[in-house]
Amino acid sequence: MATDGVTAAASPPADAELPTEQLAHALGEPPRSIRLFGSPSFFRLWLAQCASSLGDWIGLVAILALAARVGKSSPEAAVGIVMSARMIPGFFLASVGGVLVDALDRRRVMVFCDIGRGLVLATLPFVDTVAGLFFASLLLEILTLLWTPAKEASVPNLVRPEQLTTANSLSLVAAYGTFPIGSAAFALLAKVAEWLGGYGGLSALRINQESLAIYLDVLTFFVSALLISTLALPRREKHERGRIDLSRTFTDLKDGWRFIGTNPVVRSVMIGIGCGLVGGGMVVPLGPTFSERVLHGGPAGFGLLLTALGTGVAVGVGGLSAVQKRLPRPQIFTLSVLIAGVCMLAGASMSSLTPAMVFVAGMGVCAGSVYVVGFTILQETVSDELRGRIFATLYTLVRLCLLLSMAVAPLLAGVLTKASDRWFDGRVSLFGVDVALPGTRLTLWLGGLIIVGAGMLAVVALRQRRSPSAVHDRVLA
Questions:
Q1: Does the pTM of the predicted model rise above 0.85?
Q2: How far is 242 from 100, CA to CA, in rounded Å?
């Protein structure tokens, strides 16, 4: 197996056995109605992602509601235990999952995971213990850790290289644009459950709002599996798939990590996204407090800040898709990280809601660009044989950085509040302007500096970029 990891993303190995007619259909000129998606096959994959993402959001809300009900006297603890099941596998199994994705047929992996998630979910209405919900959530997360890198690694085989940015933008829309639809659907299901509850013949199905949402979630996963089963993915060489040598698992893991360490482009993306999330993730736990005590906007103000952030992400993703052919992607990636940090610093410096919303929206524009361009760079830079491991590692990094950020930020804000009160009496005067220094503002400033630092580290990594042959020599060394 070649280990250089650098190739044209959409071009399979020259000696691979390809389904010529299917591949020509997948990458040929699509009908005008779906030309935005690049190919009919990617359009089906996108529809599958929309279905499974919608089900994911509905299912997540339903599982949390179910956990709170099952927890009885300790609903918060029950929800926390169930949610921890969503975090644990990512730290221990994601990289191994990437090895499996690179070794097996990715279409079959995705179909198997969708069917498996549907079957696991179908049992949840009959689970009445927190331990049962924890175990089911654990299985769901393991299957998701296989499905996601398989999907990301397959995208370059379904669209041309120049269409990858648009494809990743559409994937982001499918992943997060379905959240408000899922939340609204869960709310509507309460009325539907009340109506169906009048039919005695359905009592065995335990019809209520949560169970109805879960049954709908099962349906979305089965629809996703059906759509993915029709994808025209190129066949990979027999020695690249279908055989899992457990003795080589750690060797394959080391190959993936070594490639990240020796390829400056991939390393810059990992640094930019990972460290950027450490800083940007601080907004989640500190946003409500900052809105109430610094911006004097209360809960409604925090909602407006989230709206500004989401709008900025949408503008960044949409605008980038429109002009992506003219952009040097590595430079746009690092510039977006740097500007995101500056916007966070500026937003945390504001004392009223409106200007803070402007800078938060700017941060959202840059965050959307970082996501789309970063994923596109990885898909273009990493060869098909390593792509599953790289994306599995990226998702592990994302989870770790977000968890670290959300856990540390409130503690750090408390420490900095005490230090500010002790040393500066909670405020300073700069150029005749009185500036309050609560711990939330100081922590958000630190987060902005971390993002700026991530952008500078990414710039340094890109300057060390070498030719593909040089990277190949380093990886083989």
A1: no
A2: 9
Give the integer Cα–Cα distance in Å for 186 and 112.
Answer: 26
Please tell me the distance from the alpha carbon of residue 12 to that of residue 336, in angstroms, as a whole number. Answer: 31
For 230, the 3-state DSSP assignment is coil
Structure token pair of residue 365:
């524009």
Within 13 Å, how many C-alpha atoms sit on residue 26's CB side?
24
Query: Which residue type occupies 21?
Result: E
Q: How far is CA 220 from CA 117, 192, 347, 418, in A?
A: 10, 18, 39, 50
Q: Which helix (H) or strand (E) holds 135?
A: helix 130-154
Overall residue count recorded for the chain in this entry:
477
Give, to the nearest 10 degrees, the angle between helix 439-463 and helix 329-349.
160
Terminal C-alpha separation, the chain: 15
For residue 39, give the 3-state DSSP assignment. coil
Joined together, the tokens standing for residue 337 give: 């990280």
Positive or negative, the CA dihedral 413, 418, 423, 429 is positive
Mean pLDDT by 10 residues, the chain (477 residues): 42 39 47 67 89 79 76 71 72 66 84 92 84 86 85 86 82 74 65 52 52 81 92 61 49 64 81 85 83 82 81 79 68 90 93 91 89 85 80 77 79 87 77 77 92 88 56 39
Question: Phi first, then psi: what are they for 435, rounded to 5°?
Answer: -115, 120
Alpha helices in 297-438 (DSSP H): 298-323, 329-349, 353-381, 384-423
Q: Which helix (H) or strand (E) holds 428?
A: strand 427-430
Q: Is 436 helix (H, G, I), strand (E, B) or coil?
A: strand
Q: Considering only CA atoms, which of 359, 345, 358, 362 is closest in space to residue 449?
A: 345
Q: In this structure, are residues 276 and 470 in contact, taking their beta carbons and an 8 Å threshold? A: no
429, containing H or E segment: strand 427-430
Task: Characterize 109-138 residue by residue with b for buried, 16 or more Cβ atoms within 10 angstroms of its Cβ, and e for exposed.
Answer: bbbbbbbbbbebbbebbebeebeebbebbb
Contact 332, 377 (CB under 8 A): no
